[in-house]
Automatic annotation (TrEMBL):
The keyword Signal applies. This is Germin-like protein. Disulfide bonds join 31-46. Belongs to the germin family. It comes from the Eukaryota. Its main location: secreted. It comes from Trema orientale (Charcoal tree). Pfam families: Cupin_1. One of its GO terms (cellular component) is apoplast. Residues 1-21 form the signal peptide.
Length: 216
């Protein structure tokens, strides 16, 4: 009997840990975000349900190509709780990513969500890096219709390996997954990280660090 109770407790602990692995579950039909509320909560305050309209659950624009004329050759069009207030507490969001020929979505992480990416046009080389100490690169070439998953928090990237434009749709397990682009965070922080710290971390000359920082 005691062993059965122990087993049940173990199963309960596992289920509980899984349930807490993403955004909290909603306790009502919806909680449309009220972004102008002075109240600060982990998420966004709910709008009065009586004032909720269909527009609160709607976004139009994913059919429009993103402008990829930038140094990295890609553009992300996010659809998070900022664009659709009705996503508040639902634990999901998505994005359209456009890639110019040989454009990249630079190495980055989403601290609050896993990502599942579907290629809708073109060919992409994608990959993510496992955590320390292995730091193993897991990479694959995707064609139109292929799907790839990036686990929460891990550094990942995409690159268009074709001579035409590429498009992907990414779904994420958070209403606000966040994004940390590694190069921007390390070399473009405000105020800047001291160059001697970065020089030692990357094992390069301080002049190289200053040169890279000047680009951000």
């Amino acid at each position: 009997m005691a062993s059965q109770e122990l087993l049940l407790l173990g199963l309960f602990a596992i289920v509980s840990s899984i349930a807490l692995a993403s955004d909290p579950s909603s306790l009502q039909d919806f909680c449309v975000a009220a972004p102008n509320s002075p109240v600060l909560v982990n998420g966004l305050v709910c709008k009065d349900p009586k004032q909720v309209q269909a527009q609160d659950f709607f976004f139009s624009g994913l059919h429009k190509p993103g402008n990829t004329s930038n140094p990295v050759g890609s553009r992300v069009t996010p659809v998070t709780v900022t664009q659709i207030p009705g996503l508040n507490t639902l634990g999901i969001s998505l994005a359209r990513i456009d890639y110019a020929p040989w454009g990249i979505n630079p190495p980055h992480t989403h601290p609050r969500g896993s990502e599942i990416l579907t290629v809708t046009e073109g060919s992409l080389e994608v990959g993510f890096v496992t955590s320390n100490p292995e730091n193993r690169l897991i990479t694959k070439v995707l064609q139109k219709g292929d799907v790839f998953v990036f686990p929460v928090g891990l550094i990942h990237f995409q690159r268009n390996i074709g001579y035409g434009n590429a498009i992907a749709i990414a779904a994420l397990s958070s209403q606000n997954p966040g994004v940390i682009t590694i190069a921007n965070a390390v070399f473009g922080s405000k105020p800047k990280i001291y160059a001697d710290i970065l020089a030692k971390a990357f094992q390069v000359d301080k002049k190289i660090v200053l040169q890279v920082q000047s680009k951000f």
